[in-house]
Amino acid sequence: MADPIDLLGVAELFSEEERLIRDTVREFVDDKVRPHVGRWFADGTFPLELAPELGKLGLFGMHLTGYGCAGASATAYGIACMELEAVDSGLRSFVSVQGSLAMTAIHKFGSEQQKQQWLPRMASGEAIGCFGLTEPDFGSNPAGMRTTAKRTAGGWVLNGSKLWITNGGVAEIAVVWARTEDGVRGFLVPRGTKGFTTRDIKDKLSLRASVTSELVMQDCELPEDAVLADSRGLRAPLSCLNEARFGILWGAVGAARDCYATALRYAKSRVQFDRPIAGFQLTQQKLVGMALELEKAFLTAQHIGRLKDAGRCEAAHVSFGKLNNVRVALDIAREARTILAASGITTEYSVLRHANNLESVLTYEGTSEIHTLVLGEAITGIGAYR
Predict the structure, then answer these.
(1) How far is it, in rounded angstroms, from Cα 355 to Cα 353?
(2) CA 315 to CA 375: how far, in whole Å?
(3) pLDDT given for residue 48 in this prediction
(4) What is the pLDDT of residue 162?
(5) Where exactly are the transmembrane stretches of this chain (predicted)?
(6) What pLDDT, on the 0 to 100 scale, is given for residue 385?
(7) Is residue 365 annotated as a catalytic residue, yes or no?
(8) Which of 62, 157, 192, 287 has an alpha carbon within 20 to 30 A of 22's alpha carbon?
């Protein structure tokens, strides 16, 4: 008999190791996160005590090698993201920003000394990182950034601000991208550095179980070795973003799956007119539509994961997955809410929380419009960004 949550049996394509990772992460989040995440979302808090436990599971920078990182496959990392976001996008964002953005930047572009200093502590969850690229007036167009880094006799001075930075208010180390005379460079800015402050963004309606912050650099003095030596030009931070977007296209499948599974359980238990609402044609039409789109998104993530493991994944592939899978997840979350009716608007059920979170996922790390233009250029050979 077919699994009603995975009608095509896509998960059967996983290796034994990948299934073990899936089951381990799923068991952890079901035990440690799912019972509490509704309250965290309502209160607008994120429990930092989870960080060491996530580190013990090897989830921080798990696709990286050395320095305490797990060295897992891209697909295995994607599966972990799927299970994390099945509980809440904020949890997946916490792990994704730590590993795919901050740790990846240091791993790719940092000196050996920087790697030795930060990566083992970040892999264990002892040190939290953030990634400062987006600015108040320059989101989709990072080339317009105004943050500057100027050389001094003893190193560098940074001035500028970054906005919508996940983990910013709790990070021990910030990877900040700034314009220099030699182009865009990355800098490691430890918390407590003179001239560096953070401000958490409150009153969010989305990603409430996540810390989102502004970073401010005002005559922020850094030593010469604070620069990521091999980071030159926008290709450096954009390559890190592509790693994070890969996690997103998998994570969206997890959010969609949880919404569909919640709606299915509710429909089979909710009785109206003397029968479960799952027995009515219109409800079955909704469930079938969700199941079809969920499996197609799952297959998309699986294929892109295999392409990445084979070294054949391009930016357009990741844009395809992010654009499609987040769009599908949002549609499923909204449809699931209609099945739950009034019950769907409370934190007792996950669907509206997922829908609210996915509104952020839809626009961060590349809006739908930007990913549409990436694919448009891949199809036509003509860039249409301006």
Answers:
(1) 5
(2) 9
(3) 94
(4) 95
(5) none
(6) 83
(7) yes
(8) 287
Residue 143 has pLDDT above 80, yes or no: no
* Closest to 149 in 3D by CA, of 224, 97, 213: 224
Q: Which long-range contacts (CB under 8 A, 24 or more apart) does 363-372 make?
A: 364/164, 365/241, 365/244, 365/245, 365/248, 365/322, 366/140, 366/241, 366/245, 366/319, 366/322, 367/139, 367/140, 368/323, 368/326, 368/327, 369/140, 370/140, 371/319, 371/320, 371/322, 371/323, 372/323
At the top level of CATH, which class does the domain 10-124 belong to?
mainly alpha
Residue matched to tokens 């108040």: 136
Residue 111: burial class (beta carbons within 10 Å; 0-12, 13-18, 19+): middle
- In this prediction, residue 1 has a pLDDT band, given cuts at 50, 70 and 90, of low
Q: How many CB atoms sit inside 10 A of residue 383's CB?
A: 10
What integer pLDDT is reported at residue 212 of this predicted model? 96
Give CATH for domain 129-226: 2.40.110.10
- Specify the CATH number of the domain 235-380: 1.20.140.10
Q: Give the 3-state secondary structure of residue 158.
A: strand
pLDDT band (50, 70, 90) for residue 219: very high
Q: Report residue 250 as tokens.
A: 């998998």
> Which pTM was predicted?
0.94
Report d(CA 334, CA 50) in Å as an integer: 29
**Catalytic one among 12, 365, 369, 377?**
365
User: Is residue 212 helix, strand or coil?
Assistant: strand
Sign of the CA dihedral running 55, 365, 139, 136:
negative
> Which residue carries 């050389």 as its tokens?
151
Q: What are phi and psi of 344, to 5 degrees?
A: -75, -10
Per cent of the chain over pLDDT 70 is 100
Domain ranges, ordered by start, for the chain? 10-124, 129-226, 235-380
Q: b/e map of 313-325 (b: 16 or more CB within 10 Å)? A: bebebbbbbbbbb
